[in-house]
Amino acid sequence: MSHEIKTTVHLAVRLLARDWRAGELSVLVIALLVAVTALTGVAFLTDRVGQAVEMRAAESLAADLRLGSAQSIDDAYEAQAGQLGLETARVTTMPSVVFAGESNTLAAVRAVTERYPLRGRLKTSERLLGEVNVTQGIPGPGEAWASPRLMARLGVDTGTELEVGGAQLKLSRVLDFRPDEGWSFVDLAPTLLINEADLESTQLIQPGSRVSYQVLFAGKRAEIDRFKPLLEEQIADGENLRDIKGTNPQIRSSMDRSGRFLNLASLVSVLLAAVAVAMAARRYSHRHRDRTALMKCMGASQSLIFRSSLLQLIILAVAGAIVGAILGYLAQLGLAWLMRDLIGQSLPAPGMQPAILGLVTALSILGGFALPDLMQMGKTPPLRVLRQDIEPPPLRYGISWLAGVAAVLVLLLWIMRDTELVLTIFAGAAVTFLTLGVIGWLLVKSLRGFRGAAGVAWRYGLANLARRGRESVVQIVAFGLGLMVLLLLSTVRTQLMDTWRQSLPDNAPNQFLINIQPHEVDAMADFLKQRQIQLPDFVPLVRARMTTINGADVSQMTFEDPQGERWARRDSNLSWTGQLQADNRIVDGDFWAPDFSGNEVSVEQDFGRELGLSLGDELGFDIAGETMTAKVTSFRTVEWDSFSPNFFMVFSPGVLEPYPATYITSLFVDESERGAVLDLMRSFPSVTAIDLDAVLSQVRDVMDKAALAVQAVFVFTLLAGLTVLWAAVQSTSDERRYESAMLRTFGASKKRVLSGAATEFIAIGLLAGLLASAGASLAGYLLATRLFELDYHFSLMLWLAGPLAGMLFVGASGLAATWRVITHAPVNVLRTA
Amino acid sequence: MLTILDNVSLEVGHGESIAIVGASGAGKSTLLGLLAGLDVPSQGEIWLAEHEITSMNEDGRAALRANNVGFVFQSFHLISSLTALENVMLPLELAGAEHAADAALEALRTVGLEPRKGHYPHQLSGGEKQRVAIARAFVVKPEVLFADEPTGNLDKRTGDTVIDLLFRMNEDTRTTLVLVTHDISLAARCDRVLYMEAGRIDRESAGRDAVH
Fold first, then answer.
1. Which of A511, B1, B38, B44 is the most exposed place for a label (fewest CB within 10 A)?
2. H or E stretch including A168?
């Protein structure tokens, strides 16, 4: 190590250690830790959740990659995959009637090979309602595993001989779960899993039979990434390739969105902490100008001082990043615990990336917010040792702003990885902070009028607040923002939930019945009549795939709205009616008359917009292999939260009637009549009942937990606000110490000086609270009226809670922070001044 | 342009001690700052330890000070976050010296403050602070020691003790001493006394002949 480097390192380490011991760095370090902890805590969590989602997505494919086709798939793909060290399996699915003695039912027969499923595990049991276990392997040749639904329909248990096409198979286990079973309200036929070796003997594959073939691939990420493009190049028409990115796009994007939201929330804390860092750095550089001059006087070069300052910052950043990441990891454990029901499974361990994010955060904050001041400190002329009035050249605010803005941009880009989004957020944040800043400034100014209103302590406190105007505004904004989010998530959220609950009628449906076969409708109506349950409407449902819009092939079309793209790629549930449902309203076009006969369809407004539909468009559908077309003649709005069965596309009577349909309905069953639902399920075993009360309370519970997690993240915002307060108190502590000593010398009691300080902080808290209440009310109003379409009632409670919480919290913390400063014996203070 | 110092010509020999005296505003401290290379004159030349410092940049002058110069100030200039020992160690650390702590401890022992090595400046009296400053000035074994009103903030008795120490160490180490002071009795202990007035050296006398 060269002499110069050695001296720099020595000096930096020693000065840092001594400053640390003397408490010169505490605010800086705490602010840094708050920032890194907030950001890494959230990043660790989102990393774990992201991994879990990916794993679950892979499980829902039962593979990393899945190649599907209606034609049998060339063996060459599997050979290629094998060469790359990937695992493969084949799944062949076809509908077939399965017989068990006298009874029979339609099943989806899935013939699989040895390693199926490549991702996730099968769960089976020895007999119906027996203990469910994770199971290795697949049914042996001559055996079959059936889903409980299939067994219920056949009325059999394990050990029974089944007849599948030309083959006799022994039902050896109950298939309780397969990872790729998917989830939709109206599932296809129940599954019968068999060994591929038996496929031929079933003789189910005949020309014209509806068979779907799949080849599954799984392996290490790098190999999958190598294999996927190879495969994409080769696949034939009619073959489609899916990977986990294409699975569950809704879950993925909502997870992405919530992850980004939490990250942004933590970024608010980071920004506030950065303000505290800047304040602390300013104070530090002010206090150390003499030291710098002295060191120069003793022969330290400017570059040595600069290098050692820089090194000190780097050491601080690295230490802050390490400790902050550890704290962030712990915080994340807490957040994961709060969100456990939302996540619903054990999470994989987080990766290292968040720790790196912590380091980038620490470096950006210190580089952007502390370095300019330290550089300025390094320019202190040595002559200051002889003449105290000599100052370093003034800091160019342009440079320090630029550094701060650059640091924040680096962080945002790192987190969001989307330049356009970052610029939007940046602009949004700048406007928000500016607006809040201006409001805060106006509030501070407005206090002037109250200065003469009470005694000396009051006047002194308010004068202080106005004099330290800039710091006061920052504190008001910091606390205001933190309190606002907490209010929004507690008071406003419960308020909205209550309003929504009140908007539902008492007898809103609480049971949803699906999969009702046409021949069961009358029997079920009789059943309900006997038990004096109000007779619901039975709504027909036909599964179909949209194939054309105005004759153009949907699969070849591109949609502006990604949601539209998704609708176009999947099966739709269609229904028909002669009469518009009570909770539907026509917004464009005309609804047909009850006796109308023709091919018309009424489309839900948002759905139509997402698909880019307009009146007069002709939609083509594939229903069980047959094609059908209908013209769009109206757009409707639907009250989805009425809990009545509703559809995006409703057809005029007669159009869908030739096709196989099932019925769905919803009904209200009083708590005391729950037994009737059980009887109903026994009498109609193929019908599935969904208890909406249970679903709703689960949703509510999940929302509560999610809100709690977001609140926890915003606790960091309050912590950051506290560090800003602390930094502000510390940066004025010399002044405060001197002033309070003077006041006490002139005869003010300790109590009076303290009440002056209390006035100042309580006023800051009050203003922050007002800002928070106003913000939360406005946000609540916008959420209620624009997003949820509910009536919003301004709540007095909210306007009391904000200011009260602000005054208590900020008043108490401010007093605690200044206590020691202003209770110093005046004689000591004046002697050293 | 305001002229602070005018037509000042002065040579100080190795091991010599000189006092610069004069009323407030006469330019004493300005001259001291120039001699030590803390500032540069708008005109003229200054040589320090056989280097022409007026043509050097700030870092060059700093490097020269590091090896040749010690300071004692009126307001002590101890760093409040450092202990007595650490304050004395600082110039050695800046020069990258090995065993800084040992040398600093030795210097503190010389000024009689070894027992207070762990104390912070605010825990020391004025006289003790100045003794720490003297230890700090001598610890680098400077060729030239600049002292700016070293007794200015001290009472008479403490001032005398500090000055005795300063001169004793000066003799022991054969350091050149440049002293700025109001105090004629203090100036009288130097080899030569320069009297300044309105930015000029008005006259000069031998120390023993120093008069108001």
1. B1
2. strand A167-177
